[in-house]
Amino acid sequence: MKACVFTLGCKVNEVESASFLSALEARGYEVTDTLCPADLYILNTCAVTAEAEKKSRQAIARIKKYNPRARIVVCGCAAQNHPEAFSGKEGVGLVTGAMHKRGVLDHLGETGVFLEEEASFCELPAPKQTKTRAFVRIQDGCNRFCSYCLIPYLRGRTRSRAADAVVREAEGLPAREIVLTGIDITSYRDGENGLGELLLRLKHLPARIRLGSLEEGIVTREFLEKMRAAGNVCEQFHLSLQSGSDAVLKKMNRRYTRAQYLEACALIYEYFPDAAITTDIIVGFPTETEEDFLASLSIIEEAGLARVHAFPYSRREGTNAAKLPDSSASVKKERMGRMLAAAQAAEERYLARFLGRTLTALFEEEGGYTQNYIRVYADGAREGGMYEVRLLSREKDGCRAEIIREIQEEI
Ligand code: SF4
Q1: Is any atom of ligand 1 closer than 6 Å to the C-beta of 146?
Q2: What pLDDT was estimated at residue 114?
Q3: 140 CB under 6 A from ligand 1?
């Protein structure tokens, strides 16, 4: 195994990097301080000037050219100043600052083996679960650093639970629906395997699987094919959007454009025409203009969204967005009114498509949910029962339905 410690900036960085080189050598690595093909890279960054920060960021791309599958640890002043510029980049396993460089070596472990993220996933005792719906944690933390969000600072970097542990817990559950949860399950990794492979490992369960909130980047043909091959995954995608305006998305540090989000939705519908794509939208983000807001309104219909959770922007001290001038309360209130009306219209359009159709629903104490997350109410349905139901009419937050037959053990 070869390790490269690449250093930008001052003498202090150089000395610290020399320590990394000796520590890596002691752990059995062949080491170098020159950028070249390697298995592991430690990038010791500099922020003395804007140019130095830029070079630090560009070093990631240079590393990827040498080894696209490289594992990368980023430390130093540029990482301290703008951790979000490095976190979430493929291959980056740890971003630490200028003050916690010991953490770099801790991350490598005593044996010199780069600790897999799941090794630091905090296992907790299995929670008490109902026979209807159970929640299984598969991931924690987040590397995305959306500019309005404190979660990455509070929960730390992403780490995944070992697939074996997820499967073991899921196999022991009596529930007929298992929801895979985490802060950012899109980033789920177990070695080379991601969320798609995890779904394939859960395909034998006598339960349907529902996914928690997803990011646009996961929507690829490869992932959707795995999801289809699994056969027991609910056709509901909570695909976080936040804004339909490219200008606002950029300020939010969301790493996709409106066009990319729309492409992801179109691809989902290609594989799962009945899918419910649900989302979150923030209204009144700092600098959001009327034009930006109209882009958020129009994408709802354009993307064919089934349900929208809209929230007025709430300033979180300590985030980058908190440094931007906030929208006024009256602007937020007025836009929220229009957004809620658009969200209601989207839900009506989606539900109308299924009136008269037969779907599978799992019932809870009051009402149930179809696999594409339509709330249904039916006479005679018992809690924990799975039924084929025909949707008859709109009712409350969903539809009135009639039971066609009970489904015993199949999904
Ligand atoms: S909004 Fe979600 S994806 Fe973005 S930083 Fe917060 S937890 Fe991560």
Answers
A1: yes
A2: 43
A3: no
Strands in 141-186 per DSSP E: 159-160, 177-181
Q: Are both 123-351 and 358-407 of the same fold?
A: no
Ligand 1 centroid to residue 183 C-alpha, Å: 7
Answer yes or no: is the C-beta of 183 below 6 A from any ligand 1 atom. yes
Of the two residues 221 and 48, the one the predictor is more confident about is 221
Instruction: Give 46 Cα–ligand 1 centroid separation in angstroms.
Output: 26
Nearest CA to ligand 1 atom 7: 151
**Amino acid 101: pLDDT:** 66
- For residue 81, the CA-to-ligand 1 centroid distance in Å is 19
Parse the chain into domains and list their residue ranges: 2-115, 123-351, 358-407
* CB of 182 closer than 6 angstroms to any ligand 1 atom: no
CATH of the domain spanning 123-351: 3.80.30.20
**Torsion, CA 131, CA 137, CA 138, CA 139, rounded to 10:** 160
**Does the domain made of 2-115 have the CATH classification 3.40.50.2300?**
no
pTM of the model: 0.73
The yes or no reply on domain 358-407 and CATH 1.10.10.10 is no
Q: Which ligand 1 atom is nearest residue 183's CA?
A: 7
C-alpha angle with apex 35: 33 to 41, nearest 5 degrees?
A: 75
Q: Is the CB of 52 under 6 A from ligand 1?
A: no
Q: Is 88 in the pocket of ligand 1 (CB under 6 A)?
A: no
Identity of the amino acid at 68: P
Query: Under a CB-based contact definition with an 8 Å cutoff, are residues 200 and 233 in contact?
Result: no
Residue 259 CB-density burial (10 A; 0-12 exposed, 13-18 middle, 19+ buried): exposed
Structural tokens at position 99: 């003050």
Please state, in angstroms and as integers, the Cα–Cα distance from residue 345 to each residue in 49, 219, 269, following that order: 50, 25, 19
Question: Which pairs with CB-CB distance under 8 Å and at least 24 residues apart come from 256-260?
Answer: 256/216, 256/217, 258/295, 258/299, 260/216
Residue nearest to atom 6 of ligand 1 (CA): 149
Model confidence at 107: pLDDT above 70: no
Q: What percent of the chain has pLDDT over 70?
A: 94
Q: And the tokens for 149?
A: 């969000």
What count of other Cβ atoms lies within 10 Å of the Cβ of residue 99? Answer: 10
